[in-house]
Write a structure and sequence with these properties.
Layout: H1 2-58, H2 66-79, H3 88-96, H4 105-119, H5 126-143, H6 148-167, H7 170-179, E1 182-183, H8 191-207, H9 225-259, H10 263-281, H11 291-297, H12 306-320, H13 327-345, H14 349-365, H15 368-379, H16 384-397, E2 408-411, E3 418-422
Parallel strand pairs: 1-2
Antiparallel strand pairs: 2-3
């Protein structure tokens, strides 16, 4: 009896392990394919956005056509039968609730983001990358007839791959997609395939000549209690700024939809507001990505209200219907705010700008581990204690706000309590 029972147990374990190994190999192969495909697609998107941004910078009169560019975007989405675009929120819902992501999201977000950058809308590109990666991955999952659970893992792989190809932080990209969906829970089962797709996509992008933002951080020579306290204060203030950005982003969208139900009117009005603000301020710092301003923040050459103007420009652009992402604007807001406030607190400008970027990013995405990895990949490990403190304080003081409405806070930030609520 014991021998027969033992044999059955061994057979069961062998069968189970065979299925598990087969599933793992299949996921790894899919991750490799997605890494290659999205590495190429991400590279094409990078060059397209770069070309559009450069063309606009050299021909500033193009900004005057932003309202017409917005009408083109709305027309594209409505013509393709996708009038109510939920953006990155749809990708997060696909992972948490099994929602389907239409393949047409990829060309739509690709073209519309390029249009937004060409005419000076204030938006990023990494949010668009998450949407393209999720859309392609979801299509691959359906093509291979994967079940719902495997499809969710594949979508995470797609997000990691495209994010890594565009932003150049493969470690953070691999973690971000498994951390951002549900705060308090990490989808560790997706770690290996996400890591593979992220690393491959990043390698493909680099081999095709993609150049990533390079920031040199000198900072203080050593870790001191005095500097640690100042950095912690800055991080808490950045957490408040992240809350402000989230509130402004959501309420601006509500106001636009309430008073301008027609999407054509809404995007035209939003584009006109951006054109007028640009004219009144006499600068193009707040149009497009704003990476040049991020670099300037490292030397302290920043307007005191630069972070506030970027919040306004980005909220109006995205709420009106222009396309792109929120991550680069988040870095802009964090870097400029950190540089200004850090100067008042006696923190070196480069360290303050870096802390600001990481803290605001953590505050709006509720992704502390990915935020820390971004710091390591962008700024190195020399100032790790400062970043660790900053991200910890930002995460704890940013409340339950977030730029993604579909993101769920599964466990409380303040106590070991299950709450399962969506971000505000």
């Amino acid at each position: 009896m014991i021998t027969e029972g033992l044999k059955e147990t061994v057979k069961h374990n062998i069968a189970h392990n065979t299925i598990r190994i087969t599933s793992m190999i299949r996921l790894i192969l899919i991750a490799v394919v997605l890494g290659l495909i999205l590495g190429v697609l991400g590279t094409g998107f990078y060059y397209s956005v770069t070309f559009a941004s450069t063309l606009r910078t050299e021909n500033t009169w193009l900004i005057g056509f932003l309202p017409l560019g917005g009408i083109m975007i709305v027309f594209l989405y409505r013509t393709c039968g996708y009038p109510r675009d939920k953006g990155t929120n749809l990708v997060l819902n696909a992972i948490s609730e099994g929602k389907r992501i239409p393949l047409r999201m990829t060309p739509l977000i690709f073209i519309s983001t390029v249009i937004t950058q060409l005419f000076g809308g204030s938006a990023g590109r990494e949010g668009a990358a998450l949407q393209m990666g999720g859309s392609i991955a979801n299509f691959v999952g359906r093509l291979l007839r994967l079940d719902e659970k495997e499809t969710k893992l594949v979508i995470m792989c797609g997000m990691s791959a495209c994010f890594s190809a565009l932003f150049g932080t493969p470690l953070a990209a691999a973690i971000f997609s498994i951390e951002v969906v549900s705060v308090g829970i990490m989808h560790y089962v997706a770690l290996l395939p996400c890591a593979i797709s992220s690393l491959i996509a990043n390698s493909v992008a680099k081999s095709l000549g993609v150049k990533y933002v390079s920031l040199t951080l000198i900072g203080p020579d050593s870790f001191t209690v005095s500097m640690a306290v100042r950095v912690s204060v800055l991080a808490i203030l950045c957490a408040l700024i992240s809350m402000l950005f989230c509130i402004a982003l959501h309420y601006t969208a509500l106001i636009f939809r309430k008073y301008m139900e027609n999407p054509y009117l809404r995007v035209f009005a939003g584009g006109t507001i951006i054109v007028l603000l640009t004219s009144l301020l006499g600068t193009y710092d707040y149009n497009g990505l704003g990476t040049d301003v991020i670099r300037r923040s490292y030397s302290g050459e920043i307007d005191l209200l630069a972070f506030l103007w970027k919040i306004i420009f980005t909220c109006v652009s995205l709420a009106a219907g222009f396309k792109g992402g929120e991550i680069i604007p988040t870095f802009f807001i964090g870097a400029t705010f950190g540089s200004v406030v850090g100067n008042l607190l006696g923190i070196p400008c480069d360290l303050a700008a870096s802390v600001g970027m990481a803290s605001v990013f953590c505050g709006v995405t509720n992704s502390p581990i990915a935020s820390l990895l971004i710091c390591f990949e962008m700024f190195g490990y020399d100032h790790m204690p400062f970043f660790l403190l900053a991200i910890g304080f930002s995460f704890m003081n940013s409340g339950y706000f977030g730029i993604y409405n579909a993101q769920k806070i599964v466990y409380s930030k303040y106590r070991n309590t299950y709450i399962d609520k969506k971000t505000i």
